[in-house]
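Final report, closing paragraph on structural work. Over the funding period we assembled a curated collection of sequence-structure pairs, and we close with a single example.
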Amino acid sequence: MSETAFVVSAVTILVAAFVQGSTGMGFALVAAPVIGLVEPRLIPVLLLVLMIPLNAYVAWREREHLDWHGVRWISAGRFAGTFAGLWILVVVTEHQLMLLIGWSTIIAAVVALLAPAFDPNRTGLVSVGLITGVTETSTGVGGPPLALAYQHKSGPTLRATVAVCFLVGEVISLVVLGIGGQIELGTLGMSAALVPFVGIGAFVSRWVHHRLDGKLLRMIVLVFAIVSGIVVLL
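Its predicted structure, as stored:
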C-alpha cells in the first residue's frame, strides 16, 4: 500500500470509528467502500479485525443497557449466515466482490432509511443475525440489519447491543475465514498498523455519544453509504 493510500485509509478508519462509537453503527458503511477502492484484497478481514477492539470498548462503556435476549437470538442466526458468507468469498472474483460491496452497501442503507418502526420477535432477530452473517463475512458490511432491529430503541441500548452482536459475529467470521484460508499475514499487519486510528476515533466519541440521539448522524452515515456504494459500482 502506498503512503497516500495508507493516509486515506487511516483517516477513513478514524472517522468510521468515531461514527460507530457515537451512534452505534456506521463503521463498515463508511470504511468498506473506501478501503474497497484503495485495496480491495483487505476486505473483509481488515474490517472484521479492526471492529473487534472498537465494539469491545463500546459494549463495555454502555454494558448496563445490553439486551441479552436479542444478543442470543441474533448470534444464533449470525453463526449460520457466516458459512454462506464464506462460500460467497470463495466463488466470486475480485470484480464481483466489488459489485457485491457496492450493491449490498446501497441496498442495506436504503432499507435502513425506509423501514418503518417495528419490534422484532425471536424469528425476526434470528433473521437479522442470518443476513448479518452473510453480508459481514463476505463484504465486512453488517450493521444496517442490526440497526433496523434496534433503530427505535434508546441510544445506549442500540449501541451496547449492536456492539456485542458485532463482537460475537466478528470472532465467528474470522475463525471461519481462517479455517477457509482467507486470512493473509499482510492483511493482519495492515490491520495492526490501523488499530491506533480506531482507538483515536473511539476515544473522541466518548465526549459526544451521550449528547446524541443518533438520528442526524445515522442519516448522514446512511446517505454517505449510498453515495459511496454508487462510487464503488462506477
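The chain has a mean pLDDT of 82. The radius of gyration is 16 Å. We thank the funder for supporting this effort.
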